[in-house]
């Protein structure tokens, strides 16, 4: 009887252990594995990072392509402008050379005059060709592309200097604009913009504020422009230009003075066009260079 009770107790104990083991296994199956979850999160993060990386690369490539295309287009336009300028220079050179004004026919009093009192030049070591002009002058506006193209054909020993005329106080702002542009290294940009504003857009540029807008558009700080425009240096240059033009006996614009001694004007009977002025200037600079004048 005792043995039977013992066997029965052992049987019940073994059954209980079996149930406990099953419960434990079930719990293991149901309970999520923390290392597995971490691995899954890491894998998802890696995939997201890879996707983002690919998107960044694609975007960078698009930006690079756009920048490259824009740079290529700008380069093409710049090259086209250079080629156009070269062609203009060639045309002007041919036009000047083909004018019916043989060198043997250039005469004092007909094609140029000798100044009674030579004017000191401002380009040592060079034969100076001074163009006296005015931004408000329609003839100067027409002469601008011609003289700029001619400038590219000049030999090393010749220097073109542009000097503003100042007949009255109303012309002083333009003279200040000219010398301020030189001081701020934007002369070509401002000159073209000023001629365009005055003669095509009908803006007189009579005030410092109006002129300032051109400089700001050219990338110059407005405060720096105002400081330069009103500076002692620019004021001195304006006064000197005025004195030089009067000493050169300038009677109209544009006119040319070679080496501070020879004045050329379309008002002379033998000079019928602006191109004629340049042809006479070529003749005079060549004569001076070879010691004949």
Automatic annotation (TrEMBL):
PROSITE patterns: PROKAR_LIPOPROTEIN, THIOREDOXIN_2. Its main location: periplasm. The keyword DNA-binding does not apply. Gene3D superfamilies: Glutaredoxin. One of its GO terms (molecular function) is oxidoreductase activity. Residues 1-21 form the signal peptide. Keywords: Disulfide bond, Periplasm, Redox-active center, Signal. GO terms for cellular component: periplasmic space. Residues 21-53 are annotated as: Disordered. It is found in: Periplasm. Residues 90-286 form the Thioredoxin domain. The keyword Cell wall biogenesis/degradation does not apply. It comes from the Bacteria. Residues 42-53 have a biased composition (Polar residues). Belongs to the thioredoxin family. DsbA subfamily. PANTHER family: THIOL:DISULFIDE INTERCHANGE PROTEIN DSBA. This is Thiol:disulfide interchange protein DsbA. It comes from Saccharophagus degradans (strain 2-40 / ATCC 43961 / DSM 17024).
């Amino acid at each position: 009887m005792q043995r039977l009770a013992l066997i029965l107790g052992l049987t019940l104990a073994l059954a209980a252990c079996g149930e406990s083991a099953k419960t434990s296994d079930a719990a293991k199956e149901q309970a999520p594995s923390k290392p597995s979850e971490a691995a899954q999160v890491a894998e998802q993060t890696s995939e997201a990072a890879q996707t983002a990386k690919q998107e960044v690369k694609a975007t960078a490539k698009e930006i690079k392509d756009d920048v490259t295309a824009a740079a290529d287009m700008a380069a093409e336009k710049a090259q086209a402008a250079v080629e156009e300028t070269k062609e203009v220079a060639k045309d002007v050179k041919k036009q000047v050379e083909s004018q019916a004004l043989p060198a043997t026919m250039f005469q004092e009093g007909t094609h140029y005059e000798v100044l009674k009192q030579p004017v000191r030049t401002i380009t040592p070591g060079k034969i100076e060709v001074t163009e006296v002009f005015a931004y408000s002058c329609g003839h100067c506006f027409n002469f601008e592309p011609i003289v700029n193209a001619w400038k590219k054909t000049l030999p090393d020993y010749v220097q073109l200097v542009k000097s503003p005329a100042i007949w009255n106080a109303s012309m002083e702002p333009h003279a200040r604009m000219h010398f301020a542009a030189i001081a701020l290294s934007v002369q070509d940009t401002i000159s073209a913009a000023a001629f365009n504003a005055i003669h095509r857009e009908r803006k007189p540029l009579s005030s410092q504020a109006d002129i300032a807008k051109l400089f700001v558009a050219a990338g110059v700080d407005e405060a720096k422009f105002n400081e330069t425009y009103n500076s002692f240096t620019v004021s001195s240059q304006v006064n000197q230009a005025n004195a030089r033009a009067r000493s050169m006996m300038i009677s109209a614009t544009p006119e040319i003075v070679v080496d501070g001694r020879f004045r050329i004007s379309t008002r002379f009977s033998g000079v019928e066009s602006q191109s004629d002025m340049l042809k006479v200037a070529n003749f005079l600079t060549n004569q001076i260079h070879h010691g004949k004048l």
